Amino acid sequence: MASSSQPQSTTEKDNSLHDNVLKAFPSADLTEDDLSQNPQFCKLLAKLSEHVDSTGLPESRRKQLAKADEELQAEMKKWMRPMIIHQLLEEMVQEHVVGKQKCMAMPEDDKFYRTLEQCLLAAKCSVGLHLAEAPSPVLGISAEHLKRAMPSEQDIHDMQEKLPKELEKHLKRKANSILGYVQPDSEKDSDGLKLKKFNHLPQMLKAERDRIEHIRENNKDLAFKLTRETHNYLNDSLEHMKLLQTLLLENRLKVQTELDRKKLEYVEGKCQLAVQKIRLQMLEVQLDTYTASKIATHKKISEHLETELMATQKEKQDVKNQLESYEMFGQEFKDLAEEYARLQAEIKAKKLAVEDFTKPQLN
């Protein structure tokens, strides 16, 4: 009992070590067979997992990377803030252009959005052509040209005064649209309640993202366990197959004679059945082919052929009798027959020669 429990505890310890190594390095593309075949390498990875994370970075580097990532996120927010505002302003202009196709806009609104569009276009040209540094060498456009193309200062001033309120309305519409997508039931809520819910929307989205990430981690663990169980199941199945194969080979000779006899009887019965089916099909074909009228016709044809056969046989007998009578003359008749055949050949040859000689010759 003690000797059997000792290997089992060693096996369980190795399996636990393999599990820890595979979980510590999920992206290393390792299998349990690799770790089993290289135990020293497995121990090295186990020691290494105490000093690095799943990506292979030590703790100090991971902290530096996290700090650098925070700084990058902060800089990205600073850089994206004016870009987002510019994109919102372009969306406002596009919505106004589309809205004019459906209904007439107020003159002051039309003037506001026209001024805003011109300012946005001038700003885009200035940034794209780097006009703040020097005039464009290709197009010959300078900042002064854009300034002359800008609306009047009064129109720009009026637009700038109205812009915060219009931008606030646009942001409110987008916020309600996003909230309606995340929480469809909030369409019936009041504006104050919608604003309150929208203020909590980042926390809700973050919580939802954390929940999804937690589910993904659980799925990774489940996938790892499934892979482990599948591996064990395949190994057990292979062992069972080997055992079954051994038992089959041991017992096969004992029952092989009986199985062969049964198989032979089955094949004989199947052959007899096939022969009977063929005979049945032949009879069916004959019944379908030879009807009563066809059989009567075949009888008449058979009687006619038998009559001709008898006449032919009689003629054959007559010819045979003549040949026998000729054979009675012996060698003299044979020589006469050969001489007759030779004379016939000479006559035929001389006829051909006379015909060739009598033909008119062409000059």
UniProtKB/TrEMBL annotation:
Residues 1-10 have a biased composition (Polar residues). Residues 1-20 are annotated as: Disordered. The keyword Transmembrane does not apply. Residues 302-353 form a coiled coil. Keywords: Coiled coil. It holds the Pfam family HAUS4. Residues 11-20 have a biased composition (Basic and acidic residues). This is HAUS augmin-like complex subunit 4. It comes from Coilia grayii.
